[in-house]
Design brief:
It contains 16 helices and two strands. The protein has about 325 residues and is mostly helical. Helix 3 runs parallel beside helix 5, helix 10 packs across helix 12 and helix 14 runs antiparallel to helix 15. It is elongated, with a radius of gyration of 26 Å. The N and C termini lie far apart (about 60 Å).
């Protein structure tokens, strides 16, 4: 921002008189310290407007908090501009945390606590196009599993988290916290997906792809249990529908291996995962690998379920289709 616009933005965000010469002089010093970055300036103004400090002592508060941040290894590699954004947002984060502690009752603590949870979980989604439906559908699907009937209609609302804020929210977490909140985001994404196949379901799963991919990149931070490994079948479905066969294959192999180990090689869910993987091989033109799995599925279902069972007949049809391809 230029030198004229930046102080005005700060004072407007702080809800102070932009025509006051005293305020303008103080604002000029603040915006210069913030590198004239609009995001940092706006956040600084909001912090002042919240009553956490006055305009004339903001720089003291900011610099003290920035020194605290710079003691954290996660922030030492940040550029000067990134540090300015990090420090202003971290001030606001600390203020929200104080509201949780100071709330006289649960009702007053609920809002700030939810805000902190959003700031901890959002770094494990893509920063753009974070759909409200992800969280609503995840809650509704959990209720449906508990026996409560729900109907899913899209709200259409989406959120965007600025790239620097997205980085700040990730960097401020400890390694243990990164693993924990990555797990929570993965669980939310998984629960938002249903095995339904209306046009709206396909659209929703397609819109999830950037968030699933982001979460998968962070998954090395967490320890995935066999139960959670089982849940990535939903992610494989989304990749498969989008024709992203390599990503679908990687997940389907993991699901199949987990089900074999936990459920056994003849369990229906294990056989379904083998059939899904065979389909992914088929879509990549890897006929021999698809055939090998389909033969295993057909022989097992024939032995366990009988020759005339619908699942057995389906596996026979899949194998014939592969042979004729």
């Amino acid at each position: 921002m230029n030198h004229d616009e930046a102080p005005e933005l700060l004072l407007k965000s702080a809800r102070l008189n932009v025509s006051s010469t005293d305020y303008l002089a103080q604002a000029l010093a603040i915006v210069a310290e913030l590198g004239y970055l609009a995001l940092a300036i706006d956040q600084a103004g909001v912090y002042i407007a919240s009553g956490e400090c006055y305009l004339d002592d903001f720089l003291d508060v900011f610099n003290a908090h920035r020194q605290h941040l710079l003691a954290n290894e996660a922030y030492k590699g940040a550029s000067g501009s990134d540090r300015a954004v990090y420090a202003t947002w971290d001030l606001s984060y600390a203020a929200i945390a104080r509201q949780v502690q100071a709330g006289a009752n649960e009702a007053l603590r609920q809002g700030p606590r939810a805000a902190l949870q959003i700031l901890r979980v959002f770094p494990f989604f893509h920063n753009e196009g974070i759909m409200e439906d992800i969280f609503r559908f995840a809650a509704e699907n959990s209720n449906a599993q508990a026996g409560t009937e729900v109907g899913q209609e899209s709200s259409g609302r989406r959120f965007l988290m600025h790239r620097l804020v997205h980085s700040w929210a990730f960097d401020r977490l400890t390694v243990a916290e990164q693993g924990r909140f990555c797990d929570q985001a993965r669980d939310i994404l998984k629960r938002s997906i249903t095995w339904k196949f209306e046009s709206s379901d396909y659209t929703f799963r397609r819109d999830l792809l950037s968030h699933i991919a982001m979460n998968q990149r962070c998954s090395s931070l967490s320890s995935v249990t066999p139960k959670e490994e089982e849940g990535i079948a939903e992610f494989a479905l989304a990749f498969s529908e989008a024709g992203r066969w390599k990503e679908a294959e990687e997940l389907e192999v993991r699901v199949m291996q987990t089900r074999k180990r936990v459920l056994g090689e003849e369990h229906p869910s294990t056989l379904s995962s083998m059939a899904n993987l065979a389909s992914t091989y088929w879509n990549q033109g890897r006929w021999k690998e698809a055939e090998g799995l389909e033969v295993q599925v057909m022989e097992t279902r024939t032995r366990v379920l009988g020759e005339e069972h619908p699942s057995t007949l389906t596996s026979m049809a899949n194998l014939v289709y592969t042979w004729t391809s």
